[in-house]
Amino acid sequence: MSGPLDGTDHGIGAGTGYGYDPARIIALRSRSIDAIAALRDIRCDDPLAGEAIRVVRLMCQNLEDSWLPLVNSIHGSTAMVAWRRAVDVSGGPDATGHPCVITRLVDQFGAFSRWIGSTGLDELSDGQLVDRLDHIAERFRRSAAGGGSLLPTWAYLDRILGEMSARLDGVRADGELADLWWDRLGPTGVDRLVHVLDAAGQITDLDLYGDTGPSGHSFERLGSDLATVFGRLAASHPEARDVLVERSTSSTHLAALVASSPDAFDHVTLVTITARLVGYSTGTGEWADRPRVVDRHRDLDELLHALGGSPMLALQLLSDPAIATALATADHVDHGAVEAAVAAALSGPAVDPELLGDAAEVLGDFVAVSADAELNLGTRRGVALAWGTFAPLIAPKLDVRLPVDVVVPASDGPSTQVIHIGTYDELARFVGQVVDDRSAQLALGVVVGAFRADQIRLATSAIDQRPHLTVGDARAQLAAALADVSRMIALVDHAVDRQDQLHAFRHGVARSQATSIMTLLGSMVSWYAPGAPLAGRISTLTTRALTSAIGATRPAAVPDTGLDAHLAVDFVATVLALPLHDATLRARLGLAGVPTTTWRELDGLLDELEAAGDDDTARHRVRARLRAVVDADADLDTYLEMLSAASGESALARPTG
Amino acid sequence: MSTHDPDHLRRRARTLRTLATTIESTPAMALDAHAGSDTWRTPRADLCRWILSTNQAQVHRAAEELRWDAHRLERRAAEIELERAALGGVS
Fold first, then answer.
1. How far is Cα A22 from Cα A42, in angstroms, rounded to an integer?
2. Contact A217 B49 (CB under 8 A)
3. pLDDT tens digits for A210-229?
4. Angle A135-A136-A137 from CA coordinates, rounded to 5°
5. Which residue of A has its CA nearest to B52?
6. Of A492, A496, A616, which Cα lies nearest the Cα of A551?
7. Complex ipTM above 0.90?
8. What are phi and psi of A15, to 5 degrees?
9. Is some CB atom of chain B closer than 8 A to the CB atom of A36?
10. Which of A:209-268 have CB within 8 Å of B?
11. Which residues are CB-neighbours of A6 under 8 A, at least 6 positions away?
C-alpha cells in the first residue's frame, strides 16, 4: 500500500500508495498556520463586502477544520516520531533543531526514505474503525441538520469509508466484521449512518458541488460507497438489513442496497422498496406517512436494471398487481430499465417452469391495464421480448369468439389452474399498444418468427420419430403446427387498423424465417435423404438464401404479402436445385416422374437466375418462368406447395387492403 | 446622505478594491503551490486540495465582484458630481 518516494510522481489515481515528504510537510504546516492567521485578520464592514468576507471565512474554516488537522496528523504521526528517534539513537539531537535533523535524515536515507508511507487509518482495529465511523456519522448528521459546512466532516467520513470498503472485501465470506459492526453500532448506530447517507443523497440532488469532484470525490460517491458498505452488511446480517429498511427515510440508499445485493432481500422488502420508489403506497399506511422520494429516476432505474438480471425476483415484484400497474404506466422511469425488468419477469418460466402461472397472471394484469391506460415503451418492449414465453400457451386459445383462458400447472400441487388473460379483443388491443412502438413490433416479429421455427422443429422432430410417415401425413402435421403461428399472426393483424403499419413486424418475422428455412431444408434431407452427400451444397445454398433474406428485409423493402420477393426467389431456386442435382433425392421426394426435359429447362432457368445477380426485375421474370414450369408439372407443383406451407409463407401471404 | 456623497462613495470603492487585492494576495491563495503531490499524496490530501482550489476560485470571483462594485460606486460618484455641476450651472 505504501512505499518510498523514488523520485517519480505516482499520483493517487495510479494506486501506488500514499506518502509524504517530511520536510515539505513541516513547511506546509507553517505556511498553513500563517495562511489561516492572515485570513482571520481580513475584515471589512462595507455592506458590499459581505459575500467576499463570507467566502474568506469559509476558506478559513476549511483550512482549520480539514486542511490543518490533516497536516498536523501527518506531522505528528508515529512514523515521524519513530523517524526522529532513530536520529537520536544514531547521532543524538542536533543542536540546530528539527529542520537540520530532517535534512540530515533525508541525506542519510536518500530518495528511498524521503517518503514515509501511511494510510492513516490502517493502524486502527476494526472496532476502533467502527467507533470512528459512528462518531463521525453523528457529526455529519448534526452538520447536515444544522445547515453547516459538510465538507470537513465529509472529507473525514470519506476517508473512513474508503478504509472500511478496503477491509470489507472478505466480509461476505466470514461475516466477522459485519457482526462486529452490528454489535458495536446496533440500531442506533445504523440509524446514524442512514442519516449520513440520506444527507449525502440530498446534497447530491442539490448538486451543490457539481456531479463530480477531483479524483472522483463527490457526495454522490460518498453515498455510493456507504450504500455498498451497507449492502455488504445487509447481505451478511439480516437483522441489520431489517433495521436499514425500517429506519430509512430515503429511497436513495435502499435502491443502491438492493442493487448491490439483490439476493439479500426478500420479496416483501423488495416490493416495499420498489413501491416507495414508484411513489406507490401499498395501502397499509405503513409507508404513507414516511417521507418518500417519488421521482428518483436513477435509483429506480438502478434497481430495475438489477432486477433485469434476476427473473424470479422481477416476477415476484410484478406479481403485485398495483406495482405492475404503476411500473407499466409510469412515464418518469427509464424505458430500458422497465424493459429489462418486465422482460426478465415474464421470462421467469424459462428459469423455472413452475412460474408459468405467475407470469401469465402478470401478463393478464398488463392486458387489463392496457384497457384503460397507455403502457409505457419499456413495458411494450419487455412484453414483446418475452412473448415467446406465452406464444405456445396462448396461440391454441386464440379464437375471436372465446376468452383467452390458458391452463397452467398449479404452483402448489399437481393440479392445473386456469388463468384468464382477457378476451380476444382485449388481447388484440394490448398487442396493438405493443406494436404501436416500432422497436417492440420488430422484437415481436422476431419472436413470432422464432416461435414458428420452434413449431417446425417440434413437428419435424415428431415426424422423425415416425420413419414410415407419408409425405402427405408429414405435410398435415406441419400444417397443424403452423396453424398456431398463423393464429398468432392473425392476432397481430387484428390489432392494427392497416397492414402497412406492420412493416417492422414482418421484417422481424422474415429475419427469423431465414432460420426457419435452414431448419426446414436440413430436416427435409434428414427425412427423405438420410446420409445423402448434400450437406455441403445445402449449406452453400441456404447460406446464400439467408444472406439474401437479411439484405432484403429492410423495413421499406418488406412487402405486405409474406415472404419478401428476394427471399422467395432464392427459396424457390434452392428447393428446386436440390432435387435437380441429385437423382436419389428426386426419387425420395416423389419427383421421379418429372421429365428430364423439365429438369433441363429448370437448370437453364436457374443459370439465368444466377446471372441476374441483384437485378430484381430480371429475378422476378425468371421466377415467373420457374413457376410456370413448376405449375405445368403436378409433382413439382405439390412439392413446392408443401414447402411453402411448411415455411410459413402461406401464413404470411395475407391479402393487402 | 452617504450614498450621495461622491467622496464617500470613492472611499468605499477604494476599500473594496483594497479588499479585493488583499483577499487575492493572502497566503492561502498560494498555499496550493506548497501542497502538491511532491509534498503529500493521500486521498484526503487530494480532497483538501480540491476544497482549497474551490475556495480559491470563490475568492477570485468575490474579488471580481468587489472590483465591479467599486466600479459602480465610482461611476455613481461621477454621475452625482455631474448632476451637481449641471444643477450648479442651471442655478
1. 31
2. no
3. 333 333 344 555 566 666 66
4. 90
5. A59
6. A616
7. yes
8. 70, 30
9. yes
10. 209, 213-215, 217
11. A111, A112
